[in-house]
Amino acid sequence: MKLAPSILAADFARLGEQVAEAEKAGANRIHVDVMDGHFVPNISMGAPIVKSLRRVTKLLLETHLMITAPDLFLEEFVEAGSDSFLVHWEANNNLHRTVRRVKELGKGAGVVINPATPALVLEEILVELDLVVVMTVNPGFGHQHFLHSTLPKIGRLRQMIEHLNHRCQIEVDGGVDETTAPLARAAGADVFVAGSSIFGDSAGVAASMNRLRTAIASGNGELRSSQADLEDERM
Predict the structure, then answer these.
(1) Of 49, 90, 96, 194, which has the most beta carbons under 10 Å away?
(2) Is 33 annotated as catalytic?
């Protein structure tokens, strides 16, 4: 079980301080969301943020490239201090080439799939990967509800990994909190990206991470069943 706090939800006026808090509280890595306004309808941070974070933390910086043509930016982020790259299957013209380039740069390679993308699209590339990320919301914005329809896909990926590439991990990203993280863990997830549930908690970063870790370890998660929640998933 690994926690990857997403700085998209952090207070950017205190970014270095909050990342330091997350590291002290036992975070395994820092998740950096990069958005270009084309692949997703939002614009976010770039290489300068990674460069700044590299000066304040020893944690692995995983860079989630929600952008078109990610190959054009790999070297820039490597120079800034990125340790691994997560690229989208849906945004890539030649996924195998991109993954191989990431490996040539000596960095970890992960592929992300959106909620509507089936697990089977990764069958031919899985042996090359260090990580598969299942988006449990549609990418582009924080504060979204976890899509429970993605849970069976996590299970299918776990079966594929056991057959093809035991070292590959499954990461879940989107709507991860004390209720949904245990469900993803039970389905087969190893790494949990959490933004709002960590940085948006008034109790502080350390307390929120401890509660999330405890919830995952205890397996206390319940499927939402209200009509309103089901409507959220259909939107």
Answers:
(1) 194
(2) yes
Question: Choosing from 33, 36, 177, 201, which is the catalytic residue?
Answer: 33
Chain segment 60-75, per-residue pLDDT in tens: 999 999 999 999 999 9
**Is the pTM value of this prediction over 0.85?**
yes
Sheet containing 169-173, strands listed edge to edge, beginning at the edge strand earlier in sequence: 2-5, 191-194, 169-173, 131-135, 108-113, 84-88, 60-66, 29-35
Q: Where are the alpha helices (DSSP H) in 69-220?
A: 74-80, 95-104, 151-164, 180-187, 196-199, 205-218
83 is an active site residue: no
Closest CA to 23 of 59, 62, 55, 52: 59
What residue ranges define each of the domains in the chain, with the CATH number in brackets?
A: 2-234 (3.20.20.70)
